[in-house]
Amino acid sequence: xxxxxxxxxxxxxxxxxxxxxxxxxxxxxxxxxxxxxxxxxxxxxxxxxxxxxxxxxxxxxxxxxxxxxxxxxxxxxxxxxxxxxxxxxxxxxxxxxxxxxxxxxxxxxxxxxxxxxxxxxxxxxxxxxxxxxxxxxxxxxxxxxxxxxxxxxxxxxxxxxxxxxxxxxxxxxxxxxxxxxxxxxxxxxxxxxxxxxxxxxxxxxxxxxxxxxxxxxxxxxxxxxxxxxxxxxxxxxxxxxxxxxxxxxxxxxxxxxxxxxxxxxxxxxxxxxxxxxxxxxxxxxxxxxx
Length: 290
Hints:
Rossmann fold; six-stranded parallel sheet; alpha/beta
């Protein structure tokens, strides 16, 4: 159906966004059909499935990257790619106002436990155990795809109904007010950094899946902050290292001065990311292909 629609529309250029499993098949078909193909937000082949780099080059006319180190990765294979900037820089610029007057008066810890049920089930209980000792305003960023009752069940199991507040689909508002954040690995680590909030990055998954991933993934870090800066700006607590005790130790370090160093690292990160306007630069690059 998708191929039929593209054939009938006959675009001047086909723009593919992320989602490599589907898009690489479409790219191959489209290129063989004589269409020009641009891949925007290229797959993270630098992390795994590096063999896909050859298909990306073979079946596209232009690769547009949103992470500053990606062009160098493609160049190491002899292929060209263009960095246009990260769209998060624009998204955060139009952030919403704060969530409450209470958050303005009381120091706040933001909990960003991920967006999938399995991930939240692994992360949130440990996050809550770690922060229950603090006299802080505790805000949990709820993902819009998850029912609030799922979070509340975990909150109740930890006896923290009156201490931890759930805010659905209001992550940016929470980060505006947060002093510290506990963040599941992913795009949220970059969002937290762009709001200037010192963070502890955490990840814990199924042991077998993690063991397999460790063999496949060729990365020194898991957070985008550290990957972009190519050094440890924020502490990563992975698998067995992710415990309530270790998180509290890192929070204590942030409160005693490490937070200042993290914020200095964020300035380095922003310098590497460049300026806003990723979508405009992407559009200009696509027009050149046409």
